[in-house]
Amino acid sequence: MKALTHGRYRGLDGNAAVFEVGAAATPLATIRVAILEPDIGRVTLKRTEGYRLDRGWAIAPNGQEPPFAGRARDDLSGFANPAVTVREGDGTVVVAAAGLSAAVTLNPFGIVWRRAGEAEPFLRDRPTQAYFLSRKTGALAHSMARHADERHYGLGDKAGPLDRTGRRFAIDAVDPCGFDAELSDPLYKMLPFFIVDGSAGAHGLYYDNLATGAVDLGCTIDNYHGLFRSYKADDGDLDYYVLAGPTVPDVTRRFSWLTGGQAFAPRWSLGFAMTSMAIADAPDADARISAFVADCKAHGIRCDSFHFGSGYTSIGPRRYVFNWNNDKFPDPAATMARLKAAGMQPVTNIKPCLLDDHPRIAEAKRDGILVMDGSSGEPAVAQFWDGLGFHVDFTNPRGRDWWANGIRTQLLDYGVVSIWSDNNEYEIWDEDAECAGDGRPFAQSLARPAQALLMHKLAYEVQAAHAPGKRPYVITRAGGAGIARYGQTWTGDNETAWKTLRFNLTQGLAMSLSGLFNIGHDVGGFHGPVPGPELFCRFVEFCALWPRMVMNSWKDNGTVNTPWMHPEVLPQVRAAITLRHSLIPYLYTQMWRASRDDMPAVRPLFWDFPQDDAARVVEDAFMLGPDLLVAPVLEEGAATRDVYLPAHPGGWYDWHDHTHWEGGRVVTVPAPLGRLPLFARAGAIIPVAEGAETTAVIFGTLADTASGVIYADDGETAAWRQTGNVITLSLRPEDGSPTLTASASTALPQINVRAVGLQSLRLATPELVLKS
Questions:
Q1: Are the beta carbons of 145 and 129 closer than 8 angstroms?
Q2: What is the mean pLDDT of the chain?
Q3: Residue 768: alpha-carbon gap to chain centroid
Q4: Neighbours of 10 (CB within 10 A)
Q5: Which of 181, 309, 340, 637 is most exposed by smallest CB count within 10 Å?
Q6: What is the distance between the terminal CA atoms of the chain, rounded to a whole angstrom?
Q7: Cis bond leading into 186, ω under 30°?
Q8: pLDDT, tens digit, for every residue of 234-293?
Q9: Pairing state of beta strands 123-124 and 131-133?
Q10: What is the pLDDT of residues 695-735, one digit of tens each?
Q11: Residue 164 has what pLDDT?
């Protein structure tokens, strides 16, 4: 590669300052430095021969949905694009707008970013050779100065601790079945977005490049350059967004806004759900599903959806998307109806690779719907888990039409309500693989995660068209920035191990900080050994209060993770699942806020308690919304749990026995099997489900103040922004007595009220009913 050390200012183009950059006097590219919003900057490098890929699919500012063909890289719609000023002098060009400025040094070329009113920069390029570009391979690199006290978060579903400092991660995607949640890399998602938090506040960087690469957050130490972090890509374009913060929540929320936000899934998707490859793989799969429904009833387990593994498509040991095995499922529509009658919504798994003996492979080749080998003119061959195959090309309108027709006719028309897009990492390693690009072909290696995103987007749109007026629920395993605007994802095929609990927790927190808000983990562990009673019960507790709770497994001996697999802990497992269902009114409200306000439901403690230094290093607990602290048991043999409770006026209450604890300290609480350590913030009002009724639980403070919000609708309306009911509850002292009032954006329903930590309570709204 060549270091781009020399720059020359060429003038303003709109709201961007344009620079020629190169090695010595030889220009190799132009760099545009733009300010798009008062807190968003952008740096875009364009080679002399043009962009490697002139479009993308991640950026969707202000809800501007990119088309299937992609959003033009130069498209600035959706941004405020404020007027900028330019000041030149002493080899430096300063580009400024309200809120943000970038000082560009011409030799050596580098950029320093400052927030308005701050003398110290929050982001500075490495002063030595910050930019590299290859004229031979398409590779590129960007390096920034790093401070020893900075912490790094994000990068999507990466394994290991929440603070990524000192590690290097591959930007790549594979199918890592049974991955090590502490060490495995890469995993499923390609998301080069990270947050830096330190003495200058927090800022974020997102590299809008879908090629493979690496992010180094201090793993490399090189005496010639001082402390630095870097992004490298094997190909593609250097096009990065600077999110100025200045807090971690500011950065995450702005990144969510930048990439289209989080889809609001239907309420039923928050219920406990079940899937297993072994059930759909079995020759008597239909009977096994009926048995599962009966077992749920017999054991008192509420299950709101059943997710079909891909075995329903099998011929022999191999799987063929959109092919029903009618020996296993003689009447798929009847199977779906039976599940719905039991209160379980049917969800089906689909995979984008057509095996080389797929019943419709000749049709797929004839219609040209597959990713192609540009050198041979034949479909690009890829290894899949059942053998060799070919991937559907979602940048091809014919491919999308073929896939949409399959979803409609083979799934939705039978009564399936939701699509689960799986195994969509697009591991096509053929260097000549080419995508149709909606009439403008490009190398598959430039945009692998775009295929997963478009597969996910298509499932969302087909479901929305099939059930007008209802919110779709769709799931994807792979992808990159932007997948959240369609639906849900999860940490993938985790290993059944004790350490998985600890590191799935930090994985999930990192995903939340990366704009993926509807997430969860396979309950019980997907692969590896069969969990024993204790580990299984702790897995259920651990997974009980994430947005997604799906029990999923594939064990070598055929064992299926089910709630009753260990009768000796069935009561405890049932208690954890029941706890989840009781808190769905609160969880649903938090997911509404995630979609409306770009606010993750699950987040680290420091999100809500930024002034508490001790909370900053807690990686074994999480906040669920602003009011609940969840501290799952992560160690084998533990009967108690040490929990740090952040400093907070009024302290905290144990959810189970209402013991009051002061904040700013570590407390030890009982944690027998079946009792998930859970704490409510004093001053919170938490909605819970008690049968068919909703109860607001008030957790009092010495000042007799509390507040809470409940969001309610029919559970699935697509018009939720217009018709949803926002209920506000407020506790204030009046005439010497704590007084609760309620109001609603539409009609106010009856709400039961229960008080914790209050000596007395007066209800000032007729629809409120006090319960003991």
A1: no
A2: 97
A3: 37
A4: 14
A5: 637
A6: 72
A7: yes
A8: 999 999 999 999 999 999 999 999 999 999 999 999 999 999 888 999 999 999 999 999
A9: unpaired
A10: 999 999 988 999 999 999 999 999 999 999 999 999 999 98
A11: 98
DSSP E strands in 610-760: the ranges are 622-624, 628-630, 640-645, 652-654, 660-661, 665-670, 678-681, 685-690, 693-699, 706-712, 725-734, 737-744, 751-756
DSSP states along 162-194: S--TT-EEEE-----TTB-TTT--S-SB---EE
Residue 624 main-chain phi, psi, to 5 deg: -105, 105
Of the candidates 453, 45, 487, the one whose C-alpha atom is nearest the C-alpha of residue 263 is 487
| Contact between residue 654 and residue 679 where contact means Cβ atoms under 8 Å apart | yes
737-744, strands of its sheet edge to edge = 706-712, 725-734, 737-744, 762-763
What is the per-residue pLDDT for 276?
87
The mean pLDDT of 643-658, rounded to a whole number, is 97
Report, as an integer, the average pLDDT of 552-577. Answer: 96
713 contacts: CB under 8 Å, gap ≥ 6: 720, 723, 724, 725
Give all strands (DSSP E) within 602-702, no chain letters.
Answer: 602-603, 622-624, 628-630, 640-645, 652-654, 660-661, 665-670, 678-681, 685-690, 693-699
CA distance 382 to 445: 13
- Please provide the DSSP assignment of 4-28 as one string: --EEEEEEEETTEEEEEEEETTEEE
- Percent of the chain beyond pLDDT 70? 100
Q: Which of 517, 547, 522, 548 is nearest to 536 (CA)?
A: 522
Residue 641 confidence (pLDDT) above 90: yes
Most distant CA pair in the chain: distance in Å? Answer: 84
Q: Residue 157 has what pLDDT?
A: 98
| Alpha helices per DSSP H over 300-384 | 332-341, 361-367
Strands (E), 217-308: 228-233, 239-243, 273-276, 305-308
Contacts of residue 456, defined as CB under 8 A and 6 or more positions apart, other chains included, come to: 421, 424, 474, 476, 479, 483, 486, 487
Identify the burial level of 68 via C-beta atoms within 10 angstroms of its C-beta, where 0-12 means exposed, 13-18 middle and 19 or more buried: middle
Strand 737-744 with 725-734, pairing: antiparallel
Q: Is the dihedral of CA 50, 56, 62, 67 positive or negative?
A: positive
Which position has the token pair 């579903």?
157
Structure confidence at residue 736 (pLDDT)? 87
CB atoms within 10 A of CB 714: 14
On whether the CB atoms of residues 102 and 111 are closer than 8 A, the answer is: yes
- For 24-46, what is each residue's pLDDT tens digit? 778 999 999 999 999 999 999 99
Crossing angle (nearest 10°) for helices 498-513 and 533-543: 10
What gap in Å lies between CA 511 and CA 503, rounded to an integer? 12
Listing DSSP states for 540-574 in one string gives HHHHTTSSEEEE----TT-----TTSSGGGHHHHH
Q: Return the SS3 of 607.
A: helix
pLDDT at residue number 554: 93
Summarize the confidence of residues 460-479 as an average pLDDT. Answer: 98
d(CA 390, CA 76): 36
- φ, ψ of residue 254 to 5 degrees: the values are -70, -35
CA 288, chain centre distance (Å):
32
pLDDT, mean of residues 305-321: 96
Q: In DSSP terms, which residues pair with 764 in a beta bridge?
A: none
Task: Show the CA angle centred on residue 756, arms to residues 750 and 757, nearest 5°.
Answer: 140
Asked if residue 386 has pLDDT above 80, the reply is yes
Q: 15 with 100: CB under 8 angstroms?
A: no
Q: Which two tokens stand for residue 725?
A: 């009911």
CB contact at 8 A, 172 and 158: no
- Taking residues 472-486, report their average pLDDT: 98
> Which pLDDT does position 702 carry in this prediction?
85
Other CB atoms within 10 Å distance of the CB of residue 582 = 15
The pLDDT value recorded for residue 48 is 94
Q: How confident is the model over 748-761, as a mean pLDDT?
A: 96
